[in-house]
Every structure is written in C-alpha cells, then in structure tokens.
Amino acid sequence: MKVITKLLDLQRTIQQEKTSGASIGFVPTMGYLHEGHLTLVEEAGKNNDTVVMSIFVNPLQFGPNEDFDRYPRDVQRDTELAKDVGVDILFIPEVEEMYKGTQSVTLSVTERVEVLCGRKREGHFDGVVTVLTKLFHLIQPTRAYFGLKDAQQIAVVEGLVSDYFFPVEIVRVPTVREEDGLAKSSRNVYLSVEERREAPTLYQSLAEAKISIEDGERNPDAIISMISENIQENTSGKIDYVEVYTYPELAELTSLHGEIIIALAVQFQQARLIDNIIISVEPEEDLKCLER
Ligand code: AMP
Question: Tell me: domain 2-173, CATH 3.40.50.620, correct?
C-alpha cells in the first residue's frame, strides 16, 4: 500500500494508474476507521483494479460549535487497518494541502439540504461537496463508495455528480451495525457506558416503525411520534430530529408510499448520533415493505 500526503505525488500516481487502464474505486473517509469504512473498501475491491482511500477530517464541513478539534484521529492504526483490508493507495493530506489560501470559487448546495442534517448543520453539505469535488478531480475514480448511514450525504453527492457530469458511479453501501443494532460510527467512542447501553434504541425504534408500516400505518406523523416517544423513554439523549421523506429526493410526504427514508439524529453528552432506514412502501392495498 502506498501512503501519500502530497497532491503532486497523488497526481503522479493516479496518472500512472490511468495510463495502465486501471479502474479506480474510491472510498473517502475522515478516518478513525471501523468496520463500516472497511466494508466500503471491500466493496470497492470487488469491482475495481485499484482501491484509493482518503483520510481527511475536512474542516469545511464542521460548524463553529461542532467537534472538528475533538474528532477522533489515529493515523497509525488507520494505516494498518487500511493496508490489511486491501487499500492500494492511502491519501492523507494536511488541511493546507487541500485548502491553499482563500477559495476563489465556492460551492453551495441548493437541493436536498433544507431537511435533516442539512437544516441542523448549516454549511455542512457545502463543505462536503467542496472537498469531494477536489478529491474526485485528483483521484478520477471510476466508482466512489458511500455508506447509507449518511443517506443525506449520498442524496447530495448524487445531485453533485449528476448536475456537474462527474464521470463517476456512486455506489450506495448498506449501514454496518454492531450486534445490538447500533450503527457503527467513529463518534461512538464518545458515548459513556450508560449511553452506549441506551444507544441501540435508535435503530430499534426505526425497526419498530418499519413493522408498524408493514402492519399498515401510512401516517408519517404517527411514525415520527412513535419513534420520538421510544427514544425519549429509553435514552438520556436529546432528539435533534426524527423525520420522514421520499428518498433520495427528500421531499415531504403526507402519506407513506414509494421509496422513503426515516431518519433521526440524537445528541448525547459528547456524541451526536444519526441513523436511518430506507424502505420501499407498497400502496396501502399491498402491505409489504422492503428495506434497502
Ligand atoms: P466518515 O469517516 O464518517 O466520513 O465516513 C466515511 C464513509 O464511511 C461515508 O461514506 C460513510 O457513510 C461511511 N460509513 C460510516 N459509518 C458507516 C457504517 N456504519 N456503515 C456503512 N458505511 C459507513
């Protein structure tokens, strides 16, 4: 595995890959790797000649009161994990390498950001599309792999790629969970012992909502209330949002049908956790739904 920190080295290496005709699978991350990230690498390895992973805690996607400084980092451990799982090129730039001086052109997301984390984290997705635009240009991936845990991110990135004709296929990878259902996340290390015990309620409440939809519930407000009550009763976390939309458009629904996302964010003492499920809801006559 090649570890690269400088843009010039990366560009030279990618040029060689391209000249040799290799397909490139790209996994962008912020590091502190866990099985979720490693699953993306495994998926990338199945369909591409070369797997590139980036580790970059992007300051642009953190708000002034968010956890940029506290975001967990362990480059040495990450490097070993990346090597073991089959990454071919690991790109770990410094902030100065990615953002030289002031940006003369900025990117701003206008669709799919007025809801969920986009509403709560102002400018977050502008930061995400900015860094991904840089990384896509540098790495020229054939395919890029994203986790459905960050489903709004995928919706926004699909918009970016489609609007600006990026020649890359976006691959959606299902959320990897702990045995008790908690979505794996770098931020889980900041849960206290008690909070860690409570945290599986997030996914359990989504799973119960799914059963309720299978049983015929079609009212989004009823689903939102059911999940909110469950979280309030069983955790010490503060609900940031529980919302239901179409997916990936993230449009409002008065009655549940088609591809929908049920998503939530809960603030614990030192960690804000998000989770979601995406399900396909059949019309009321045919009460089936399939999780994606
Ligand atoms: P992050 O390092 O948190 O920015 O995540 C990098 C990539 O890994 C993103 O595409 C995430 O959606 C994905 N990811 C993070 N956690 C998980 C998980 N539990 N399951 C699947 N993908 C994940």
Answer: yes
Per CATH, domain 186-281 is 3.40.630.10: no
Q: Is 175 in the pocket of ligand 1 (CB under 6 A)?
A: yes
In angstroms, rounded to a whole number, what is the distance separating the alpha carbons of residues 203 and 172? 19
- Kindly tell me if the per-residue pLDDT of 287 is higher than 90: no
The separation between CA 229 and the C-alpha centre of its own chain, rounded to angstroms, equals 26
For the segment 182-225, what is each residue's pLDDT rounded down to a tens digit?
999 999 999 999 999 999 999 999 999 999 999 999 999 999 99
37 catalytic? Reply is yes
Pairwise CA distance, residues 163 & 195, whole Å: 41
The full set of domain ranges for the chain reads 2-173, 186-281
**pTM of the predicted model as reported, rounded to 2 decimal places:** 0.96
What is the pLDDT averaged over residues 78-98? 98
By most ligand atoms within 8 Å of CB, the mutation choice from 33, 35, 38, 40 for ligand 1 is 40
Ligand 1, closest atom to CA 185?
A: 16
Residue carrying structure tokens 């930061």: 127
Does residue 41 contact residue 86 with C-beta atoms inside 8 Å? yes
The first and second tokens of residue 46, run together, are 């199945």
The partner residues of 147 in beta bridges, in order of sequence, read: 173
Report whether pLDDT(8) > 80: yes
* pLDDT grade for 290, boundaries at 50, 70 and 90: low
